[in-house]
Amino acid sequence: MCKPWVMAADIDFLPRGACSIAASLELVGERWSLLVIREVAWGNHRFSDIVRGTGAPRDRLAARLSALVAAGVLEKRPYSDSPPRSGYHLTAAGRDLLPVLQALLQWGDRWARDEPAVRLSHAPGGTAEHPIDAEWVCRTCGRPVMESRVSRELTPAGRALAGLPITEEHAHEH
Amino acid sequence: MCKPWVMAADIDFLPRGACSIAASLELVGERWSLLVIREVAWGNHRFSDIVRGTGAPRDRLAARLSALVAAGVLEKRPYSDSPPRSGYHLTAAGRDLLPVLQALLQWGDRWARDEPAVRLSHAPGGTAEHPIDAEWVCRTCGRPVMESRVSRELTPAGRALAGLPITEEHAHEH
DNA sequence: CTCCCTCGGTTCGATTATCCAACCAACGAG
DNA sequence: CTCGTTGGTTGGATAATCGAACCGAGGGAG
């Protein structure tokens, strides 16, 4: 029995950059980026709030913020006309990063410290409030992803990125 | 109505380092680290395999590998006696990072490129193989986490990290 | 009007990390 | 003995990061 998530695939090595993990890290993998997203998600929208919440140097923070705006993860929204000031808010793409933060939070709670320092709770649909202990579940079959064998396959788009030939053989193989 | 994951909490600013997200990034947030985990998870255990798979410079890779071993995320396991060679494998902590990779993969598929380059499939419990489209679901109530309001609260351990007083008031408040 | 404060950044110089090519040691094959 | 493979190190150039100081537009108090 093979470990979950470790399985032979139709390829040995992904071409560099073909993997969406690498593509994501290209956009949000630099230092402070994810902590900035966390601060904004937690309601700290102003420059000085984010400085205080992350502890990042101001110049790095300014650089990250404009990079994240350029990447479409954050947007600048004015909150005062005089003096003209604006804060940062999550776009749809930014909100979609929250699972990444949730995953990092859960991992850190478990492996990076003795006791969690922050507890997250929710009360979905009127149920009683309770702490969150989340797992990845496949929307298609409803089963936890991490407990099953996973296989990976290079798509035609991936082959194109890789500069590999897109053959009938590959288009049909499984 | 407040956006999910954006909600008032009992604290305005988390002390730096109190948050497990920051603690996680401290261990695996540096460049190449998560790509190394990806390679190892995908079955590339040897130094030269990981060089090829990630494209990282050899010296950076050596540094990351020993850091990840020191952090308890990877372990070195010999695969040949003569010549004495060893490869890198995921520990339990390392396998627990896979949700982070899954989250980054899904985000990248959606926001960082036109078409996914790699398709992940699984066939849990003898069902037919199908692509993975996963979401975070609370183990307690079975509901998707991202669709409900989430509140955060500093635990006593978090207060201690923050240097804040641990009062009865705070221990009981909600 | 003047002085001082806040906010959202920039600028500067020093430190640190990263990159890349070359090198090295251990071993096996031929 | 030489060659190729593997798993790294080393050295020097380049780029990112840091921390503190600075700046400019605008209040508000006096």
From TrEMBL, chains A, B:
Keywords: DNA-binding, Transcription, Transcription regulation. The keyword DNA-binding applies. The lineage of its organism: Bacteria, Bacillati, Actinomycetota, Actinomycetes, Geodermatophilales. SUPFAM superfamilies: Winged helix' DNA-binding domain. This is Transcriptional regulator, HxlR family. Residues 19-116 form the HTH hxlR-type domain. The keyword Transcription regulation applies. It comes from the Bacteria. GO terms for molecular function: DNA binding. It comes from Trujillonella endophytica. Pfam families: HxlR.
